[in-house]
Write a structure and sequence with these properties.
Layout lengths: L1 H22 L3 H35 L3 H19 L9 H11 L34 E4 L2 E4 L5 H8 L13 H9 L29 H25 L5 H7 L2 H31 L13 H17 L1 E3 L5 E3 L3 H8 L1 H26 L4 H4 L5 H27 L11 H4 L1 H4 L2
Antiparallel strand pairs: 1-2, 3-4
Helix pairs in contact: 2-3, 2-7, 2-8, 2-9, 3-6, 3-10, 4-7, 5-7, 6-7, 9-10, 9-14, 10-12, 11-12, 12-14
């Protein structure tokens, strides 16, 4: 009976495998869904950024506490769709080459505006760390005189951003805007985000901290630039767009690109550089959204982006769905058990990131979690880290199962060589 049962089981598995293979989607169909979801995510990011721009315009026109809080809420809302696009990095060169314009981090905020006296000034590594372009309508850069009397998107994007080739000279994107809305978070490991007053945008005698007119110019220019950059990327994923064309030019390489993005974001970028590294250093400045204390949301939506790309299903900000043939379907056709494993691990990661998110929203903020000796915070953060590492192992197995060329997954010293972090 046992042998007959085994033979019957093998026969059944053979039939099931043949059926799964017959139902397998083409790589072209999987790539089309992937590109459609990218197009929807970047369109949602653009829509949310345009709402942020409206809120910023309202703040500048009539600065009040209410207007400042509305702009902050719009910034937080804008992060949710954008963070779900980060899974398109690493595997798509066009995204990697562009991403620094909109989401570069960390930044030397003294480049942009006033900072607390405890903030370090210019260093050998970055002479512009305390430039304060808002307070200086002219300055020298790489030996040349710069006329910054009018703060424009061109000044920020073409001249100031990553000036002198230094990545910490972040002049554009979400985090520059975040700093201008919140200011520095000077609370260390205590509760509380940045507390920039709305009067930093009031014109005339009631202006605080000086240069309110130029601060408004900078905020307006940075937000305008964010909108135009996102509009450009959304176009790249439309039919005929450069990103979509590059993806579908080689179907096997395209599927590898999906897995490269999933693995690199999961492992080196999110688990390593954004989570484990900050915990090792116990440094609240290592929070990605350090001015707003929104890091828990950014981590959560990064994880969600990995999951929805694998499943081939994305819920837009208007509640509609974009879905189709998925990487999951492709894996099912080769190894249903492996697909189940991947889905379970993705769900486990999202549960861990969801717990981190809900705990932060209940008042135990991410910078408090990072404090040395805070065992509860360490458990919450490491729950996400371990989930992300675990799902990366399955991503690597999927690459082998689908008989793809070896992919390069981004690493992090915090995971691969921890001793190097302290040297």
């Amino acid at each position: 009976m046992t042998k007959l049962f085994a033979a019957t089981s093998i026969l059944a598995l053979g039939v099931a495998s043949a059926s799964a293979a017959a139902d397998a989607p083409s790589k072209a169909d999987v790539l089309n869904t992937y590109a459609n979801i990218a197009e929807a995510k970047y369109e949602d990011s653009l829509i949310a950024a345009m709402k942020l721009q409206e809120a910023v315009d309202a703040l500048i026109a009539d600065p009040t506490d209410t207007a400042l809080n509305a702009a902050r809420a719009a910034w937080i809302a804008a992060r949710a769709p954008y963070q779900q696009t980060e899974v398109y990095r690493f595997g798509n060169a066009i995204v990697d080459d562009w991403e620094g314009k909109v989401n570069a981090w960390p930044l030397d905020e003294g480049l942009i505006d006033y900072v607390d006296a405890s903030y370090s000034g210019p260093t050998d590594a970055n002479e512009l760390a305390a430039l304060n372009v808002i307070a200086n309508p002219t300055f020298r850069l790489s030996g040349q005189a710069i006329d910054a009397r009018e703060i424009t998107p061109e000044l920020l994007g073409d001249i100031l951003h990553e000036a002198d080739g230094i990545e910490a000279n972040v002049a554009t994107g979400y985090h520059a805007i975040e700093f201008l809305l919140w200011g520095q978070d000077l609370n260390g490991h205590s509760a509380g985000a940045g507390n920039r007053p709305y009067t930093d945008y009031v014109q005339g005698d009631d202006c605080t901290n000086g240069n309110c007119d130029r601060r408004a110019q900078y905020l307006s220019a940075a937000t305008e630039l964010l909108v135009s950059d996102l509009a450009w990327m959304a176009d790249q994923w439309k039919d005929g767009g450069g990103a979509r064309a590059a993806l579908i030019a080689n179907e096997t390489a395209g599927v590898s690109a999906i897995l490269t993005g999933m693995g690199s974001l999961s492992y080196g970028e999110l688990a390593g550089e954004r989570m484990r590294l900050g915990l090792m250093l116990n440094d609240p400045e290592e929070e990605q959204d350090c001015f707003s204390d929104n890091t828990h949301n950014s981590h959560y939506y990064d994880g969600l982006g990995v999951q929805n790309v694998y499943l081939g299903s994305y819920t837009r900000i208007d509640g509609t769905h974009v879905s189709g043939a998925s990487l999951s379907d492709l894996v099912i056709a080769s190894d249903p058990a492996l697909d189940s494993e991947m889905k379970v691990k993705l769900a486990n990661t999202m549960q861990a990131l969801g717990l981190l998110k809900s705990t932060a929203e209940a008042g135990f903020t991410y910078d408090q979690m990072l404090e040395r000796g805070n065992e509860g915070g360490e458990l919450l953060i490491m729950g996400g880290v371990n989930g992300l590492i675990d799902q990366t192992k399955t991503i690597e197995r999927i690459v082998i199962t689908l008989e793809l060329d070896q992919i390069n997954i981004e690493g992090s010293d915090s995971l691969d060589n921890p001793n190097a972090v302290f040297h």
